[in-house]
Amino acid sequence: MQAVPILGGPEVMAIEEINRPTPAANEVLIKVFAASVNRVDAKMREGKYPVVTEKDLPYVLGRDVSGEIAAAGDEVSSFLIGDEVFAFLSPEHGGYEEFVLAKSDEGRGQAESLDAVGAAAVPLAGITAWQGLFDQRSLRSGQPVLIHGGPGGVGQFAIQVAKAKAHGSRSQYLPGTRTSHPISAPTR
C-alpha cells in the first residue's frame, strides 16, 4: 500500500510503498478516503512538536481520517466491514496512508450529511473546541462566551457547540448559525 511518510525536512515528501497493517484484537483497519492536514502536522514536519523526533523517522502524519472499515479485530463489535467512519488517530498511526489502524474507540460512524472530506475535518477541530469550552472552561447553558478565531476550524466548531448548548439542542449542526455579536479585528 502507499503512504506519505516524513523522511526528513519539509522539502522531502514522497509516496512510499509500505506493508498493509493487520488489526489487533481491539483495532480496526480503515480504508482511508480523506485525511486532514492540521497545524500540528505542519509543526511535526518542521520538527517543532516533540511527539516526533528524528529517531522516529520515517513517520506518517495525519491524525484525522475518514473512510470505511476494511477489517476488524476479533474483539471489535461496534463496527462492521464497510461501515463509513471518521477517526481521531493515536500518535502511533498516521492517516496519510491508504489503510490505517485505529483503536475501535477512536472511530465514530460518519453522519450521512457529511462527505468524506468534511468528515475528515471534524475530529481534531471538534475535540479542541469541546475541550476549550467544556473541559477547560466548564461552559454552562446561559453563560456568555467569547470565541476568538471564529472563521477557523476550531472556531466554527466552538460557535456551533456553544450555540447548541445555549439552546439546549443536540442537533449535529445548527443551520444558519452565525456569531451573535461578531467583532472584526482591525486590518494592519
How does the overall form come out from the CA principal axes? globular
Low-confidence stretches: none
Which structural category fits the helices and strands? alpha+beta
Can you list the strand order of the major beta sheet? 8-4-6-7-9
Strand count = 9
Can you tell me the number of structural domains?
2
Q: What does the average pLDDT come to?
A: 85
Helix content: 10-25%
CATH architecture of the largest domain: Alpha-Beta Complex
Largest sheet: 5 strands, antiparallel
Give the helix tally: 4
Question: At the first level of CATH, what is the class of the largest domain?
Answer: Alpha Beta
* Element string (H = helix, E = strand): EEEEHEEEEEHHH
- What is the CATH T-level topology of the largest domain? Quinone Oxidoreductase, Chain A, domain 1
Taken as a percent bin, the fraction of beta residues is: 15-25%
Distance separating the two termini: 47 Å
CATH superfamily of the largest domain: Medium-chain alcohol dehydrogenases, catalytic domain
Query: Roughly how many Å is the radius of gyration?
Result: 18 Å
